C-alpha cells in the first residue's frame, strides 16, 4: 500500500565533511571494505546515524549539503522512521502536512550521529561493533525495565 507524502524532499543530505563516509572506495559502505557498514546503502547509514543522533539528543546544522540520497528510492519503513523521530519532537500530527521540514530535522540528527560514530570508530576501531552490540543490549534492557 502506497502512502501519499506531502512536500517530501527530492534527496536527503549529509554534510560535505562526511561525504567520504558515504561514498567512494574508502567509504564506510564500500562492499570491499572491512568497515562496520560494508555492503550497506547510504540510506542505511543515514537511518542508523539519525537514530544514534536522536538517542543521544545530538543534532547539528548540515554544512555544505551533499544531497545524494534519493527519497523516492527509500522504502516506506525508512521514510516513517525519519518521520516518527521528528514527529515525536513536534508532538503534533499536523506537522505531516509539510514533510520537507521534518526531513531537514532528520538530517541534523544525522550530523550528530555521524560525529558520534566517527569518534567511536576512532576510539574502538575494529572492535566498535562489539562495543555497539553491548551498548544496544543495555538500551534494550533499560527500555524493558521502563515498560514494567
Write a structural description:
53% of the residues lie in helices and 7% in strands. The protein has 148 residues and is mostly helical. It has one domain. Strands 1-2 form a two-stranded antiparallel ribbon. Helix 2 (42-55) packs parallel to helix 3, helix 2 (42-55) crosses helix 4 (99-124) and helix 3 (76-90) packs across helix 4. The longest helix has 26 residues, at 99-124. The protein is globular.
Largest sheet: 2 strands, antiparallel
Order of helices and strands: EHHEHHH
Mean pLDDT: 85
Beta-strand residue fraction: 5-15%
Task: Output the radius of gyration.
Answer: 16 Å
Number of domains: 1
Helix content: 40-55%
Structural class: mainly alpha
N-C termini distance? 34 Å
Number of helices: 5
Read across the widest sheet, the strand sequence of neighbours is 1-2
Shape: globular
pLDDT below 50 for ≥5 consecutive residues: which ranges? none
Question: How many extended strands?
Answer: 2
Write the layout of secondary structure elements.
Blueprint: E1 11-15, H1 19-22, H2 42-55, E2 65-70, H3 76-90, H4 99-124, H5 128-147
Antiparallel strand pairs: 1-2
Amino acid at each position: 500500500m502506497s502512502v501519499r507524502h506531502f512536500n517530501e524532499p527530492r534527496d536527503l543530505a549529509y554534510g560535505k565533511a562526511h561525504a567520504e563516509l558515504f561514498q567512494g572506495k574508502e567509504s564506510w559502505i564500500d562492499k570491499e571494505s572491512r568497515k562496520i557498514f560494508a555492503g550497506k546503502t547510504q540510506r542505511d547509514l543515514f537511518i542508523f546515524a539519525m537514530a544514534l543522533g536522536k538517542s543521544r539528543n545530538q543534532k547539528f546544522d548540515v554544512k555544505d549539503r551533499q544531497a545524494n540520497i534519493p527519497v523516492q528510492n527509500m522504502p516506506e519503513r525508512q521514510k516513517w522512521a525519519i518521520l516518527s523521530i521528528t514527529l515525536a519532537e513536534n508532538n503534533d500530527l499536523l506537522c505531516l502536512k509539510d514533510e520537507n521540514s521534518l526531513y531537514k530535522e532528520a538530517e541534523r540528527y544525522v550530523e550528530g550521529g555521524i560525529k558520534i560514530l566517527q569518534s567511536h570508530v576512532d576510539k574502538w576501531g575494529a572492535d566498535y561493533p562489539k562495543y555497539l552490540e553491548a551498548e544496544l543490549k543495555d538500551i534494550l534492557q533499560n527500555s524493558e525495565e521502563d515498560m514494567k
